[in-house]
Amino acid sequence: MKPDKYIKNYIDGALQPSDSGEYLDNYNPATGKVYAHLADSATADVQKAVEAAERAFPEWSNCGTRVRYRILSRLADIIEQNLEAFARAESIDTGKPFTMARSVDIPRAQANIRFFATSIIHFASEAHYSENESINFTLRQPLGVVACISPWNLPLYLFTWKIAPALAVGNCVIAKPSELAPMTAYMLGKAAIEAGLPNGVLNILHGSGSKVGQAMIEHPKIQAISFTGGTATGREIARIAAPMFKKLSLKLSGKNANIIFDDCDFDKAILGTLRSSFSNNGQLSLSGSRIFVQAAMYEKFKDDFVKRTQFLKIGDPFSPVTDLGALISLEHMEKILSYIALAEVEGGKILCGGDPIPMKGQYESGYFIRPAIIEGLSPNSRVNQEEIFGPVVTIMPFETETEVIEFANATEYGLAASIWTKDISKATRVVEKLKVGVAWINDWNNRDLRTPFGGLGKSGIGREGGMEALRFFTNAKNVGIKY
After folding, report:
1. Smallest Cα–Cα separation from 371: which of 351, 395, 391, 356?
2. Which residues contact 340 (CB under 8 A, 6 or more apart)?
3. Quick one: pLDDT at residue 237?
């Protein structure tokens, strides 16, 4: 399996161009050059996909869990067998290191499909017994045609996390990957054909959010929308879809706290902070972008953290020693640089990084910057309040539990947090008071596929992962039996 220069839609079991026949440019972020073209889809393509999904739904929803298990397992096998090709495509499309795509993104994508393929066999509903009177049980049934819209930072990883549970419970899916990173979604369509997924069960549409994404959200036959992306886009989806009474799962932005107490394991806290700050170039909603260090060890931690950050290797995504590759686009790089400039206006001090890296050869036009650490900003500054989504973190000291909880909760976001301390009682107290949907103690981003995932406030609504995803993609029908 290999990428192609022209990325087509996957509709009704076939790869096909958009109805308009037009294509958008697809850039390699590491070179800044166009290397492929993706279908520029719109309303007509969405309509075609919905009609195919509606035709496929009766058979797919009634074929039985074991049939769906076998087909989805084959799909996971094909991704696993083509690990190198998928990882290479993901690296070229996003600018991330090939080593990360190969060890994290693509293995997680096939694991998502395999997990939900297996989960559906064990998916159980509730029963309630009223003594000498009746039994009530919950019948869970698929919704019908649903939409899955995923972002560019973890393209196949998050794409499959949405699609797999939707398909497993018997829905048919209209899916849209980001136009900035569409290649592995296109390859997933090829894999679906090879796996024998029935025509129309999964449809993958490419193009801009303003055209194809908008048409998906507005379509009256689409019963639910699972979206991961920015808060502004999530708000617009809710504005359109809520009056249509569609089910919504919105996984949105984050501005996460990384809380480091002076009784932590210093080396583990430093390494964990490096990971949470700069993994995937900081282009993760879970990134620990606000670092709070207890005052007694603040200077020591800051100095070591800066030194280790300066040792990170940025450059060729296919070099085995590269830590950070390219940012996703020129526009995104300019946004990140504007926040670094804003930090100085707001009184911050740039401790390291924050400048573009001049590259040579094939990467001279790529989107590379040095990771930045910023000190001296107020918790209420824009840089500490707005998601930057790049290799930029702020660091500041705190004195007490009460103070750091106040700092951590001082945003409208509520996605995640990490707490570093050897005192489990203290960690538990802090976790209970943090306004987040996900928290880690002495770790970061340790994800178990069985657990629920989601945030509070501007970080979204609903939960994904594990049984929560299977519940979201089904309707619960209570059945009462009198005896």
Report:
1. 391
2. 350, 354, 372, 374, 392
3. 97
- Where are the domain boundaries for CATH 3.40.309.10 in the chain? 257-451
CATH superfamily of 6-252+459-482: Aldehyde Dehydrogenase; Chain A, domain 1 (3.40.605.10)
CA distance 112 to 254: 23
For 230, left (φ over 0), alpha (ψ -120 to 50), or beta? Answer: beta
- Rounded average pLDDT over 190-201: 98
- Please check whether residue 161 is in contact with residue 449, taking contact to mean a CB–CB distance below 8 angstroms: no
R_g of the chain computed on alpha carbons: 23
Q: What integer pLDDT is reported at residue 443 of this predicted model?
A: 97
Please write the tens of the pLDDT for every residue from 382-395. 999 999 999 999 99
Under 8 Å between Cβ of 428 and 382: no
Q: What is the pLDDT of residue 24?
A: 98
Give residue 231's pLDDT. 96
- pLDDT at residue 1 tops 80: no
| Degrees, nearest 5: CA angle 412-326-312 | 85
Q: How far apart are CA 169 and CA 157, in angstroms?
A: 19
Find the helix or strand (DSSP H, E) in which 457 lies. Answer: strand 456-457
Phi, psi of 460 (to 5 degrees): 120, 180
Q: Does domain 257-451 have CATH number 1.20.1560.10?
A: no
Model confidence over 276-316: pLDDT tens digits? Answer: 999 999 999 999 999 999 999 999 999 999 999 999 999 99
DSSP string, 180-239: TS-HHHHHHHHHHHHHTPPTTSEEE--S-IIIIIHHHHH-TTEEEEEEES-HHHHHHHHH
CA atoms of 168 and 202, how far apart (whole Å)? 11
Model confidence at 248: pLDDT above 80: yes
In this prediction, residue 3 carries a pLDDT of 83
pTM over the 0.70 mark: yes
Q: Mutual orientation of helices 401-408 and 424-433 as an angle, nearest 10°? A: 40
Kindly report, as residue ranges, where domains of CATH 3.40.605.10 are found in the chain.
6-252+459-482
pLDDT classification of 124: cutoffs 50, 70, 90: confident
> What average pLDDT does the chain have?
97
> Rounded distance, CA 42 to CA 45, Å?
6
**Residue type at 338 in one-letter notation:** S
Q: How far apart are CA 324 and CA 192, in angstroms?
A: 32
The two tokens of residue 94 are: 């996003």
Two tokens at 164? Answer: 């797999």
- Give the burial class of 304: count Cβ atoms within 10 A of its Cβ; 0-12 exposed, 13-18 middle, 19 or more buried: middle
130 φ, ψ (degrees, to nearest 5):
-105, 115
Q: Please list the alpha-helical segments (H only) found in 229-329.
A: 231-241, 266-278, 298-311
